[in-house]
Amino acid sequence: MTQTLEPDTGTAQRTVETWLADFEAALQAADGTAAAALFATDCYWRDLISFSWNLTTVEGREQVADLVVATASATGACRFATEEPAEEADGVTTAWITFETAVGRGRGLLRLIDEDGPKAWTLLTTLHELKGHEEPRGTARPMGAEHGASRDRVTWLERQQAEAESLGSTTQPYVLVIGGGQGGIALGARLRQLGVTALVIDKHSRPGDQWRGRYKSLCLHDPVWYDHLPYLKFPDNWPVFAPKDKIADWLESYTKVMEIPYWSSTTATSASYSQETGEWTVEVEREGRPLTLRPKQLVLATGMSGKPNLPDLPGMDVFRGDQHHSSAHPGPDAYAGKKCVVIGSNNSSFDICGALWEHGADVTMVQRSSTHVVRSDSLMEIGLGALYSEEAVASGMTTEKADLVFASLPYRIMHTFQIPLYEQMAERDKDFYQRLEAAGFDHDWGDDGSGLFMKYLRRGSGYYIDVGAADLVANGDVKLAHGQVDHLTEHSVVLADGTELEADLVVYATGYGSMNGWAADLIDQGTADRVGKVWGLGSDTTKDPGPWEGEQRNMWKPTQQEGLWFHGGNLHQSRHYSLYLALQLKARAEGIATPVYGLQEVHHLR
Amino acid sequence: MTQTLEPDTGTAQRTVETWLADFEAALQAADGTAAAALFATDCYWRDLISFSWNLTTVEGREQVADLVVATASATGACRFATEEPAEEADGVTTAWITFETAVGRGRGLLRLIDEDGPKAWTLLTTLHELKGHEEPRGTARPMGAEHGASRDRVTWLERQQAEAESLGSTTQPYVLVIGGGQGGIALGARLRQLGVTALVIDKHSRPGDQWRGRYKSLCLHDPVWYDHLPYLKFPDNWPVFAPKDKIADWLESYTKVMEIPYWSSTTATSASYSQETGEWTVEVEREGRPLTLRPKQLVLATGMSGKPNLPDLPGMDVFRGDQHHSSAHPGPDAYAGKKCVVIGSNNSSFDICGALWEHGADVTMVQRSSTHVVRSDSLMEIGLGALYSEEAVASGMTTEKADLVFASLPYRIMHTFQIPLYEQMAERDKDFYQRLEAAGFDHDWGDDGSGLFMKYLRRGSGYYIDVGAADLVANGDVKLAHGQVDHLTEHSVVLADGTELEADLVVYATGYGSMNGWAADLIDQGTADRVGKVWGLGSDTTKDPGPWEGEQRNMWKPTQQEGLWFHGGNLHQSRHYSLYLALQLKARAEGIATPVYGLQEVHHLR
Question: Which of B144, B354, B377 comes nearest A149 by C-beta?
Answer without folding.
Answer: B354
